[in-house]
């Protein structure tokens, strides 16, 4: 077995032992992720990790289509809203990844699920972590109605101060930092920010077992506090 394969196997074993942090503010503990004042809205995203050519752990990201009505042109993880037929969050993440970028679910070894995040519009977003052992077997087929392009970045960059900036924001009296990470892919610079950046900071912290080299100051609503979210009109 190659050194790279062994590294991913060790990572898979480590992550399978991970237990999401549990607290009274975790949306899975409050009405199954449903805020009291809103309808149930749930989504899942796939953090697909693979071994890069330089031996670094990398994650697949997408640039959303400019034709989409919301968040057009933004960088995001593959994923989307849970559908009625989905058995669980894992199925949602894998189904959406297949629909968006043509990633065969059989290629992904799902190893853990991280703590849910909640948007200020009462959407619970569940990060599903999977490992792509055979990157060469993945033939990207972006759905151009949803995805402009896809690219990959080193996961560890979300623990570093390099190419990072932040902006202070406030929501319902809650002050927090919005993080922006710039990454050059070919001739294009992609900016990973907002909840996608926050999810990847958490994922990198779990994978590398260390905190980021900067102050996070996350918004309370991303930790699933229903008192800080408002149903979208």
Q: What would a concise description of this structure say?
A:
The chain is of the alpha+beta class and 233 residues long.
Task: Tell me what the structure shows.
With 233 residues, the protein is an alpha+beta fold. Helix content is 18%, strand content 32%. It has one domain: Nucleoside Triphosphate Pyrophosphohydrolase, CATH 3.90.79. The chain is built from three helices and eleven strands; from the N terminus they run αββββαβββββββα.
CATH homologous superfamily grouping? Nucleoside Triphosphate Pyrophosphohydrolase
Integer average pLDDT: 85
Run of helices and strands: HEEEEHEEEEEEEH
- Helix fraction? 10-25%
CATH fold category name: Nucleoside Triphosphate Pyrophosphohydrolase
The unreliable regions are 23-37, 225-233
Kindly, what is the distance between the CA atoms of the first and last residues, rounded to a whole number of angstroms? Answer: 54 Å
Radius of gyration: 17 Å
Can you identify the CATH class?
Answer: Alpha Beta
| Total of DSSP H or I helical runs spanning 4+ residues | 3
Bulk shape:
globular
Q: How much strand content do the residues show?
A: 25-35%
Count of discrete structural domains:
1
How many beta-strand segments? 11
**What oligomerization state is this entry in?**
single chain
Largest sheet: 8 strands, mixed
CATH architecture: Alpha-Beta Complex
Query: Structural class given helices, strands, pairing?
Result: alpha+beta
């Amino acid at each position: 077995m190659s050194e790279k394969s062994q590294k991913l196997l060790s990572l898979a074993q480590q992550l399978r032992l991970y237990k999401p942090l549990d607290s009274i503010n975790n949306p899975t503990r409050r009405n199954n992720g449903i805020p009291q004042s809103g309808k149930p809205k749930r989504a899942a995203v796939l953090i697909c990790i693979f071994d890069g050519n330089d031996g670094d752990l990398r994650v697949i990201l997408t640039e959303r289509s400019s034709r989409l009505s919301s968040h057009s042109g933004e960088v995001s993880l593959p994923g989307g809203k849970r559908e009625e037929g989905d058995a669980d969050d894992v199925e949602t993440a894998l189904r959406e990844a297949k629909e968006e970028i043509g990633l065969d679910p059989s290629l992904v070894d799902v190893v853990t699920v991280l703590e849910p995040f909640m948007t200020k519009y009462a959407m619970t977003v569940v990060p599903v972590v999977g490992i792509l052992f055979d990157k060469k077997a993945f033939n990207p087929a972006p759905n151009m109605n949803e995805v402009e392009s896809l690219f990959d970045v080193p996961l560890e960059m979300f623990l570093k101060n390099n190419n990072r900036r932040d902006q202070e924001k406030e929501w319902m009296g809650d002050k927090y930092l919005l993080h922006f990470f710039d990454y050059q892919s070919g001739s294009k610079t992609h900016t990973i920010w907002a909840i996608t950046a926050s999810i990847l900071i958490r994922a990198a912290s779990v994978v590398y077992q260390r905190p980021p080299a900067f102050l996070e100051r996350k918004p309370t609503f991303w930790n699933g506090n229903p008192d800080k979210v408002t149903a979208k009109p």
